[in-house]
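User: quick one
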Amino acid sequence: MTSPHFPHSDAASAALSQVTLRYPNGPSVLDRLDWQLLPGQVVGLLGRNGAGKTTLLETLLGLREPDAGAVQLFGQDALRLDDAARGRIGYVPQHSDLFEAFTPAQLLAYFRSFYPRWNDAKVEGLMSRWEIPRDQAIRKLSGGQKQRLSIIRALAHEPDLLVLDEPVASLDPAGRRDFLRELVGEVMDRGATVVFSTHILSDLERVAFNIAFLSRGRIALQAPLDELLEQVRAFTGSVTEMATLMARLGAQPLKRTPLEAGRERVLARLPADTTLPDSVAVDRVNLDDLFTELT
Ligand code: ADP
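Assistant: Done. Structure below.
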């Protein structure tokens, strides 16, 4: 049954509603955060170091109990998932130093025993392609190999929701984006929902998906990258002009920056196919600008 908090949650892979979380003696890391991940969406969660990305992903997975608000996965309370729902989730934490004495082959055999659905062909293919030695102790693998192995483990049971916390952090800069594209390709074919966090902007370019900006405990904005670049503009003018213009265009102001002499700069998202009047001072924005202004 649908809870009153989540009018559309049955359709969502994950839905967070008004989620607040603080660590003891700290400020709120998540502050009445609303967020939904829809089936098949591939979302890059972007935020500065310490913004709360790990906290958010752990809360989304039901690994942390929020102080307020609710989290649902596949329409179920994330803190009380049944086994079937659990089996639909794959998670790659930022650091996993478990099983260091196992070999990759032993690790995979161990996890295989838990999952009714396990794709041996995919596992074997990825082990070869990503050059993971099967019979060497995991503690002797490089950081990048460990990370890839952790990803193979999470992909093997073909999850409907794949959550990856900084999945390319241990890879060298040159390989990061290519690897991400390959990873996303693996899961997109099946229509799985994927969310991965990063604090590195260039990871996201040309991987083609939605971007969610985490800032001040909330998702400040989420949209497909190409739509953002098409629809977000920076306007400059007097405060009154800006208010009139935003209302007239039906634009959604994302950030206002006061300038001298009663003027301001407004970063705003325009409705699709807006035609701007010639008289307006307007700039295009790139992903760098968005990151700087929204996180
Ligand atoms: P990110 O993943 O974006 O770098 P985190 O979720 O790791 O951010 O951390 C968000 C904030 O919460 C940081 O200020 C961090 O210091 C703090 N924090 C994270 N984990 C804990 C914890 N277990 N106890 C107390 N504070 C924490």
